[in-house]
Amino acid sequence: MKRVKGYRSGVKKLFAIAFIVVVFFGVGIIYWQAQSPRETAEKNAISFARKHADLKSETAFYLFNRKQTYFTVAGTNTKNQKIFVIIAKKGGATKVLLQNKGISETGAIALAKKENPKKILKATLGLWSNNPVWEVTYLNNSGNLCYVLYNYKNGNMVKSIQNI
């Protein structure tokens, strides 16, 4: 039996392509599974806010983890007011805030930039000691993780942890 020249290299290439495709889909499935709990939490929080806080449309979702987990939905209510709806993961306690009665996400990030961070990672709204706060997480110039909490109503620093 005569072999065609290049047969082995063709099989190797086919195997390599099949391996890459399997790895690609495997990584996609893992990523999808990892995102699933957050997406479920977001959908549930939006549904809860629509039922209990007159949310008409949503513009953002925040996940806040400190002593307790909170889900925050930003959006507009049925009176066309811009609101934040903060929902406790345990117990479902809800706090509704008018967006014009406190500092914005952009404002909280601007306050954190006064710390001269290397990179802002995220800003999220939640409750700390039953008070609304913006948590801004960033990397300092040494590359260490830091976070700072700012009071939602006046922008005062509530807590700062550096070099985690």
Structure commentary:
By secondary structure, the chain is of the alpha+beta class. Helix content is 34%, strand content 38%. It is built from two helices and eight strands; from the N terminus they run αββββαββββ. β1 (55-65) and β2 (69-77) form a beta hairpin. The protein is extended, with a radius of gyration of 23 Å. Residues 45-87 form the Cell wall elongation regulator TseB-like domain. This is Cell wall elongation regulator TseB-like domain-containing protein.
> Do you know the CATH architecture of the largest domain?
Roll
| Total number of beta strands | 8
Mean pLDDT: 87
Query: Which percent range describes the beta-strand content?
Result: 35-45%
Report low-confidence residues grouped into runs of 5 or more: none
Helical fraction equals 25-40%
Instruction: Report the structural category.
Output: alpha+beta
Rg measurement, Å: 23 Å
CATH structural fold name of the largest domain: Nuclear Transport Factor 2, Chain: A
Which H/E pattern describes the elements? HEEEEHEEEE
